[in-house]
Fold this sequence. Notes:
Radius of gyration: 12 Å
Structural class: alpha+beta
Strand content: 35-45%
CATH class: Alpha Beta
Shape: globular
Distance between the termini: 10 Å
Amino acid sequence: MIELREKRGGVVFVVKAQPRSSKSRICGAYNGGLKVSLKAAPVDDAANEECCELFAKVFGVPPSRVHIVSGRSSRTKTLMIEGVNAEAASHIFEPFFISS
């Protein structure tokens, strides 16, 4: 299950990023967060930008409303989507609630 928290008018969750993949996509639930594959390499902030763009598309918001709160230089990142509450995010992430 994905742990979602509300903070300052947005939703916060953890992402495990795997850069240099064949395509960018959300792979599924992983340790209370989401695992994502990113096509970009972790060079010059390209993978971070691609991660934010991916979630902007998923939520239908501009990329400027998606922020990496912590973990910019790590594979494990905490993201915040402005203007989205935890309930709305849980509906968007529902297909990724994979239980083992």
